[in-house]
Amino acid sequence: MDNIAGTKSSLTWAVHISVAVLVALWLFPTVGLFVSSFRTADQIATSGWWKALFPQEQNEVLRTAAPDTQIQEGALYVIEGNLFETGSESEISAWGTSSREISAYAPGETADLGEDGRLTVMADGTYRYENDTAFEGRRGDRVFVTATAPPEFTLDNYRQVLLSEDATDSMAKAFFNTLTVTIPATIIPILIAAFAAYALAWMDFPGRALLIAAVVGLLVVPLQLALIPLLKLHLGIGIGKGYLGVWLAHTGFGLPLAIYLLRNYMVGLPRDIIENARVDGASDFQIFVKIILPLSFPALASFAIFQFLWTWNDLLVALVFLIDSTGETTVMTRQIVELLGTRGGNWEILATAAFVSIAVPLIVFFAMQKYLVRGMLAGSVK
Amino acid sequence: MHPALQGMLTIVIGVGACITYFWGSNQFLDKVLYPPKGPNAGRNINRANIIRPWLFLFPAVFALGLYLAYPVVETLRLSVTQRIPGGGSEFVGLDNYTQMFGEQKFWEAMRNNMMWLLVVPAVSTAMGLLVAQLTDRIKWGAIAKSLIFMPMAISFVGAAVIWKLVYDARPPGTEQIGVLNAIYVGLMDGEPQQWLTTPFWNNFFLMIVLVWIQTGFAMVILSAALRGIPEETVEAAIVDGAGPFQVFFKIKVPQIMGTIVVVWTTITIVVLKIFDIVFAMTNGQWETQVLANYMYDKLFRSNDWGVGSASAMVIMLLVTPILVWNVYNARKEMR
């Protein structure tokens, strides 16, 4: 369509701009969470995350040092120091000594406070407070400043979420639990499905078409139906709630897609190779292991990614089959839902916990996107 | 035992058992039961070939039967029975259904599910088609697509947290930290809104989360379909003087109609089962109940397996037309 005379430039621009807007819209929410996970609770509560990326102007109430640090310079009593903590890069644009006039003075000006003395505050926060008589009292005086602080980020949230001993915040245990659920639940269905897919693709037997139709049908059966009967079954045969139950459940629920994907892929493999191997006397088992399995690697990878994302992100199956009343086997999705309930306002903890849980799928996603797309194209029922 | 060790052990045992089963059963068939030698060699080979597919299929068929087919039947049975205190159950006919149909919460869930069903597949597919078409011919299209596709990797729960931050509301007069309220208050001069607790409209704010996730899926599939359109049809239309919009709506869309339907139905199934987003964001309060969450409530909060099973059957009933249609198409394609 690039060659439609006359409309090219304006339309191309419109396309570029609309795509840019859409991408920004799609990214914005996730970036918000990501940025928030590096901010302190205070920062999150007082300003939107989008402001964190730019220097911020904020009003602060600071104090001069206590009078007992004063020194005597001739007839003058002097307190010197910096209003900010060491290492701060904030810059003062205006300041005042009363809450009614917080921006009465510019940096470098001297405020004459009558018999309380004279205060000079510089832009970087250093001040000189001098008086003709000795300063009294226990605490320093308040100074109201309007300061521009550079963006500031912290890793404290991650430290708390990953390393804290506090069970309600800790994601470390949930992280390993999730991993424990995910890996067997990804590998085992692949093996079972691969053999079945080979039989459905390359072996001839009565009832094959019916079985394929059944697999297509089971693809869409909602797993909600399986919850009670299988929980009853698991409790009945003594598996109970635990890892074994959740592995079996994920294997069962993942199988239709696995078989469907792998069969579709295997059917497309060249017939000649398989026929030749048969003529040369290879058994079906040998053909499967030596020819089909290596050639099906892309399809196996596609399904592995699907199953990994699905089991990692799952909440319902874990709630029903895994997590018992002790909460020892909690997974990350469950932990986050708990946090949403108990710490709904603590965005620094929530954002960080959520980001810890979505980081791994995101890495897998960007690293193996090619296989994911391929699997998706093969897996949608045509 | 440490669960990680237990997991490792399960992988080893599971994989080992699978391999032993497949290898062992094939060996048994060929070496012991019907060896392809001796006086009956020919007959033995034929017999072995009849049995072998079922050796390959057995674990899968068994797991499918136990974990998906049996529950459908068992749920149906549970939905017409009631547990008797002290153990056992009795047949109660349609009592569970009658009780469910009498509950206002159920109809609220039905209404909301229907709204989800109307809005989410349509909007996701339309957005996906739009993005697929727009990114088709631009240089950085691949990057744009991968970024819009990204939410697919994020869990529903993670998405719920992400969007809760977007919808966050602070009291009037204070600085808004949710983007939506910041825009609403800052640019449109409104009062900060509690987007998730305003009945009726909050449903749409929950739907946005799913649209955000599913648009990437629709885009990937439709983008591949657009690429598959024969170049000549588009060129012929341009030669005949068709504008870009006409080319899109009259040439391209009709050719990928089949794929659009597939995307639509796939998202429809996701919508029918939607649970996590509602569970994590509102838990069905403020009139946002949906069927799957209603079922979860019945099962694990009220501990009422009869009504829970009945509502699961309602979800199954809604999925059935798509199931039949898929099977019909798959069989047609195989002939």
Topology:
The complex is a heterodimer of chains A (382) and B (335).
Chain A: H1 8-36, H2 41-46, E1 56-63, E2 71-73, E3 76-82, E4 91-96, E5 110-112, E6 118-121, E7 126-131, E8 142-149, H3 156-163, H4 172-202, H5 208-218, H6 227-237, H7 243-267, H8 271-279, H9 284-295, H10 297-313, H11 316-321, H12 332-342, H13 347-367, H14 369-379
Antiparallel strand pairs in A: 1-8, 2-3, 3-7, 4-8, 5-6, 6-7
Helix pairs in contact in A: 3-13, 4-7, 4-10, 5-7, 7-10, 8-9, 10-13, 10-14, 12-13
Chain B: H1 3-33, H2 41-79, E1 81-83, E2 89-91, H3 95-101, H4 104-134, H5 141-149, H6 156-167, H7 179-186, H8 201-227, H9 231-239, H10 244-255, H11 257-272, H12 276-281, H13 291-301, H14 305-334
Antiparallel strand pairs in B: 1-2
Describe the structure.
The complex is a heterodimer of chains A (382) and B (335). In chain A, the strands form two sheets. Chain A has a five-stranded antiparallel β-sheet with strand order 2-3-7-6-5, with no helix packed on it. In chain A, strands 1-8-4 form a three-stranded antiparallel β-sheet, with no helix packed on it. Chain A contains 14 helices and eight strands. Chain A is α+β, with helices and mostly antiparallel strands and 382 residues long. By secondary structure, chain B is an all-alpha fold. In chain B, strands 1-2 form a two-stranded antiparallel ribbon. In chain B, a hairpin with a 5-residue loop joins β1 and β2 (89-91). The radius of gyration of chain B is 27 Å and the shape is globular. The model of chain B has no long low-confidence stretch (mean pLDDT 83). The chains are: A alpha+beta (382), B mainly alpha (335).
